[in-house]
Write the structure tokens for this entry.
Amino acid sequence: MQEDQEQKRNVMLFFAISLIVMLGYPYVFKSQTQIQVNDSNNQNQEVAAASYLSQNFDKKSLPKKESIVHQAEIKTIEICAPRISGTISTKGVKFNNVNLSDYTQRYDNQDKVSVFGEEDYFTSSGWKSDNKSVILPDENTCWETSSTKLTPESPIVLTWDNGAGLIFKKKISVDENFVFTVTDEVKNYGAEAVRLQNTMLVYRELGKDKSESIGFYHGPIGYFDGKLREVGYDNIDKEKEISYKSKGGWFGITDKYWLVSFIPEHNSSYSVNYKSLGNGNYVVESNEDWSVVNPSSKFSKDYHLFIGAKEINTLDMYEEKLNVPHLDLVIDFGYLYILTKPLLYAMSYVKGLIGNMGFGILLITLLLKLLLFPLANKAYRSMNKMKTIQPKVKALQAKYAGDQMKLGQAVSELYRKERINPLGGCLPMFLQWPILFALYKVLYISIEMRQAPFIWWVHDLSVADPWSILNLGGLIPVTLPGFLQIGIWPLLMGLSMWTQQRMGPAPADPAQAKMMMIMPIMFTLMFSQLPSGLIIYWTFSNLFAIAQQYVIKKVDEKNALARFEAKG
């Protein structure tokens, strides 16, 4: 009995500590959505970027380069495509200003999403040489072009002559969605052969005030030789440089909803380096194999550059179109990939079919309940039987109050006699949790859920219910801590959990019974800041389960009465 009491106290202590950690978490850790850049570091970060590019594109000497730079006028190329817009400067030809036409910063304004944001964040490509005397284009090079408008129908061509026997050409085209196709070409009209290496890089400044994401991966990512490589910023800081070799594949930097990724030719061999430059500056850089460009000959490399939204159907389309493996893995499906991806397909299909994702979640919940209907029926019947024999269980508890071993034997015999499986009622929960986790992933990381409205006050199913009951949805001018911003939908979820719990048998152990009583409250608090779409799913799921359990109970009572009357 002493060991049993000690175990009960441990259980209570565990839940108490869990509750304290849950309530104090928002004050100890910062949210990933609040990445900020320390203004005092901006100058150092810009210097770091310029220094890195200068070192890696092998700039020869500034005086001579400057004389070449001023030969060309700096122009701005306008990107005009159906789903993206932005600009590219002919100085350095960096991609750092791309906006998504289909996505706004918030549901209540029309400011388009900028993939690169306001950080020092860009992509570029160029050449390296093992001969330091070879003059190569760098971040200060001003390229010449006859066109300043890039559309799917009209690619642009930029050229630059190094004045020492090499002419560099860069052809850029854009498609109807999110992919740029770039050809880097060099023509040797000099008297000697040169060895060159094509390189592509993504540079990003995060500053010192950065934190890891919760619930999804963001950062450097790549798919090399059949393996997904996700290397977090902290790991890169620790190792300084992490390298991989690959043939084909892709690499870049991913955010929750957006992706910047290079896709080399599927048969090209290259190495990729994830580097930390210090002060929150990072580079993902590729180096192709060395190539020799002989006199009176030319050499070129083709690659694709994805800058856009992580839409599952669009990513799948590019996988097939560009012959690129597993581009879908830029979406953080988690360990339940086998469930998460089909659910994401279902969400995407329902969104196109219904148009309202809240009602789509209702439909998907109903379909899942129908799928699990036979097993749930068996489980709920077991739970109903457990409830009907509760008076007999309590009588045995009173009879064997001082002997736990005999009580256990007597209760087991009662279950055997009544043909009840005491674990049968747990089956629906065990089946629901994997689906719940998979659906949580879908609702939390899929762009299909971003800014998807439901009805009334729910304008974005991917964020928490904004209507807090404690300040009447903002009518009372009080700013509440995150864990106290409890919306209506979390309350409905907690109420549905409590109702479902009351319909089942009470635990035989009084301590367990008390614990079960506070679980709906704990879940309401814990889940209040989860995406409202997930809370709506769980609420609907509980309501369907309550209805199903009620019907089964009435049917069983009716059948039992019929059997009793038949015997009479």
